[in-house]
Amino acid sequence: EADIYQTPRYLVIGTGKKITLECSQTMGHDKMYWYQQDPGMELHLIHYSYGVNSTEKGDLSSESTVSRIRTEHFPLTLESARPSHTSQYLCASSERETQPQHFGDGTRLSIL
Amino acid sequence: RKEVEQDPGPFNVPEGATVAFNCTYSNSASQSFFWYRQDCRKEPKLLMSVYSSGNEDGRFTAQLNRASQYISLLIRDSKLSDSATYLCVLGGSQGNLIFGKGTKLSVKP
User: Which of B28, B39, B31 minimizes the C-alpha distance to B87?
Assistant: First the structure.
């Protein structure tokens, strides 16, 4: 099973703050993904990366940005958080695209 | 037509029951198929891959019907711990995975 870690697990913060959600994996997977999921709703892909210096936007438009400077690290940043950004953010990785993705525990973000 | 469609449920079944979920997909070129399980407020976890010949893992059986473009998951002898949302997942045309909305299962004593 892939080892993939997300921090923080929970974050409650005020409007206008800059936020970085961390995601790291120790499996050497090239493919990494960020999903957004509201309670009781489906997963939406917001960003993905196929390797270092590769980042792409997903199906759901998001005001967040990502970077992939190192294989193991795929942070997501919100420059100015708003209440509409309140959601759960899930990071995943896989050895190859279309292979099973392994998920981190997620970050529950609440913007006041 | 949505890429992946599932009956949202909930399916409320007694312990020991057999329950089956179906999932239909629109992209006939999809090559990979999976069932994931997601517990409330938790991350999705891979339950099993779905192979063309069908496959079984303990009480769980997955089948793929390419002609009709659907996959199924059968759970035998349901346990209370099977209560969760089951996500149908397939490989997308852009090389990523497409997740269904999920089917909620509630197993009662």
Answer: B39
